[in-house]
Design a protein that fits this description.
The chain is of the alpha/beta class and 248 residues long. It has a single domain, classed as 2-enoyl-CoA Hydratase, Chain A, domain 1 (Alpha-Beta Complex). 46% of the residues lie in helices and 17% in strands. The strands form two sheets. Strands 1-2-3-5-7-10 form a six-stranded mixed β-sheet, sandwiched between helices.
Length: 248
């Protein structure tokens, strides 16, 4: 199997993760999930890493669940919290910067928003598109989106399931830097260099402190979302909606 997650160093203290599952278009394929797990474990075991930058390839950051995964959820064979992959960037011991240089859809958007800092591309499309398929949001999105994007915008994105270009989000007052796609990773690396100049102990402690509320409130949010899934994934047309609308 070809390697789809690449880990390298930028300078002495910055680790860079590239998600490049071109065949799977950076959906949560087994290869992508496994590769990210390996990369993040290597980072956690390396005391010289102070900060992580994660990005996708070309025009895709992360496109969320595969059709197979969504259908498996609909058939009640597994739940989205069967493992902790969805919160992997939150659980990374050092600060993570998500350079969302490309489209981030559904679970892919939520995955990136678990990072400590985010840089978006003005041309890229960002969508919390769960409701398009007939089921309620998961992965902690009902907590993470309001925290990171603001309640009003998060409500609109979650209820409407529409996509928003980065430039539109910038006009809506989003708190993240939004730059041309070609500058996204470079912007994140400059920000990472600022962090890498700080004490590693202080960075790790501050990450825990800044995420205290999220870590405290996340279990209850996950429980609420799982309860909603029990109802919405039981709807008689759910499989047809996923099959007909996936990728559209």
């Amino acid at each position: 199997m070809a390697e789809v997650v690449h880990l390298h160093r930028h300078g002495t203290a910055i680790a860079v993760i590239e998600m490049a599952d071109r065949e799977g278009r950076n959906t949560f394929t087994r290869a992508l999930v496994a590769g990210l797990g390996v990369a993040l474990r290597r980072i956690a075991d390396d005391p010289t890493v102070k900060v992580v930058v994660i990005h996708g390839y070309e025009s895709i950051f992360c496109a969320g669940g595969t059709q197979e995964e969504l259908l498996t959820l609909a058939e009640h064979k597994v739940t989205f919290d069967a493992h902790d992959f969805y919160r992997a960037l939150l659980d990374c011991p050092v600060p993570v910067i998500a350079a969302m240089q490309g489209h981030a859809l559904g679970g892919g958007l939520v995955f990136g928003l678990y990072a400590d800092l985010v840089v978006m591309a003005q041309e890229a499309l960002y969508s919390a598109n769960f409701m398009k398929y007939g089921f309620t949001p998961g992965m902690g999105s009902t907590l993470v989106l309001p925290m990171k994007l603001g309640a009003a915008l998060a409500n609109e994105m979650l209820f409407s399931a529409r996509g928003y270009h980065g430039g539109t989000l910038r006009e809506r007052g989003i708190g993240f830097p939004v730059v041309p796609r070609a500058e996204t990773v470079a912007t994140a690396l400059r920000l990472a260099a600022d962090l890498a100049d700080k004490s590693d102990v202080a960075l790790r402690l501050l990450k825990q402190a800044m995420n205290h509320r999220l870590l405290q409130d996340l279990p209850a949010a996950i429980a609420r979302e799982k309860a909603m899934h029990e109802t919405t994934f039981a709807q008689p047309d759910i499989v047809a909606r996923i099959t007909e609308r996936f990728g559209r």
